[in-house]
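Section: Multi-chain targets

For targets with more than one molecule, the full set of components is provided together so that the structure can be written out for the assembly as a whole rather than chain by chain. Components appear in the order listed by the source. The example entry contains two components.
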Amino acid sequence: MADERAPWPLYGHGDLLRGLWRAARSERLPHGLLFHGPVGLGKFRAARALAQGLFCGAPGDDLGPCGACGPCKRFLSGGHPDLFVIDPPREIDEQIRVGHIVPRDGPGEPGESAASFLALRPSEGGWRIVILRQAERMGEQAQNALLKMLEEPGESVLWVLTTEKVGALLPTIQSRVVSLRFRPLPQEECLAVLAAEGLSPEDARRLARWSGFSPGVALSLGERGVPAMRKLALALLCGELSPFEAAAAVGEVDGVFEGKTPSGRERERARTWIDLCGALLGDLARLAAGADAARLAHGDMAQASGKIALLREPRVLASAVHGLTTARADVDLNLDPGAAIERAAQMLAAREWAQLPG
Amino acid sequence: MKLLCNREKLREGLALANNVIPAKSPKPALVNVCLVATQDALELVGTDLEVALRYRIEDVKVEEPGTAVIPARLAFDFVRDLTGETVTLATQASNCTISSGSDSCELVTVDPDEFPVVAHFDTAGAVSLQAGTFTALVGRTAFAAAREQGRYAMHGVLTEIAEGQLKMVATDGRRLAVASAPIDAPSHPPRPVIVPTKGMQLFCRVISDPLDQIQLSFSDNQIGVKTRHAEVFARLLDGEFPRYQAVIPGESANLVEADAEVLVRKLRLVANVTGEEARAVRLSMKKGTLELFGHSAGRGEARAAMEIEYKGKNAEIAFNPDYVIDGLKNCESGTVVLEFNEKTSPGKFRLGENYIYIVMPITIDT
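Its structure, encoded as tokens over all components, is:
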């Protein structure tokens, strides 16, 4: 799903964008860019900001888009005629099809391709920009189709590819674009992003910490109700809730879970819960091994009650991690997400752990 | 914006605009029509980003000039179903009211800045020509443009003004249509552009009278046509059009002159037995006679003959009959001239003055 928020101002990557806008002004902008780096750092948002800045009719002193001119308004309303975005849905096995790159007839093929978009000259006389999000989702055929287009880009055409797995792209594609690595944001900038998104300082600090200071991940955790789930998990670890009570409460947590169907969204809820349980267990193991609590995302568990400390036995932790892995696999196999949530809750529950067989 | 206009004229304009405006689009602003009220006229602007239309309604009583962007289908449906003779359009804040007598409808408007920019026709450098000349050239060529996916440069009609002629060329790689007509154009360097077939079709649709004068203008990215009531624009195709001149045969050893109508009839007759998988009709020429032969494994075979004027040795050549018929439909005179050298070389059909049609032959087992 496209991120339709105004992409500018963009914390953490402003200098990079200003450099690209300057390059465009002096006609030195390459026809292909690859934004790569860990998830949640704003690569796609930076790509959109770059496009908006190139379209803008009245850029500011910082070279950034004004947000008020006609091209900016059309961009922000999703109607700019010279922008084509390939943003695959976040379903687990959804790939970017060949039909997204070049036209293909047949069921399930997208109606418009990048090639058909680029076949026409620009509508507003400037750039024609294609943003390809999560480029690693292209299969080999799609990558080969893209390669051909990168070899003959056409006049005033800009391709911006974003990926978290640069190694999944063909070397021939990598060699035809200029790679720009996105690095994690400094803590202050990550907090500034979260504050700009309307989070309270306390929530921003907690979510930033849990996400490893990745703003996108932090926002996603917030949207998916992870703070509420974490409270349930801690209550479970402390024995204040039974696994069944916790699982039922997890099913009621408010959150935005991606998926095309209700069951797809429930699977995403289950994944969120299981991943959180995994993260908590991981930090428990690290605490048991003597890690510095201050450096851990969930290091505050060190101050929790003795019931959590009871669980720091490696044998018990290993069994629990195995259980969580199985629950995650069950979800990916489209088995009942409610059962997987319950299983994960049991893995986390203090009393049941003590009874786990060796 | 506030104005009063004739309901029927508004309905006509909205109907035409809705030919351009998509019913659904991932770009939400596109499903709207932009109404621009000036001192004495109302302009309806619609686009699907490939083609765009500005339709002007005259004799409008404008109380307050302005702009409103409203849902195009809804507006058309409502205006069509009204019964009054006149319609009032008025905007208030983010709404546009369409009313006639006691009937009214309030539509939510969109920020005009979110609507795509549609150019105004630039008369500087534009050329004037008779509408019928333009539509005739489109009719003679556009059918030969490619339709299959890919090969975008061939999805349009190469259009060029050079040496006082407007020339149009279209090809799908298996056939080529070239037609030109003299026009009264100021001399400027040739500037070939590739116009999407869809754009050409829209140009022809807005031309209501072939005797009208229209204006044609070219810019870097689009071509525009101005008629009495409308300005229509089509974005140009990017890419390089095939070097078609090399395909047109010069001198030919064999020359057939035939009645175009009879040839079409005979081709249709014989083509009946040929299947979709092997669509070919063999033409065998000898002095005074053309024999047509078609067959299809498992279906049968058919023969026909007709009188022709023929210069050359006994020869034969096979074509896809559909391609030949497509061209012959546009034959300007009653007689068609076919020239070719060998059965493997292209056949050149002369379909009128300044109109040639090349079809690649098909090799068939005899």
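The beta strands of chain A are 32-36, 83-86, 128-132, 157-163, 178-181.
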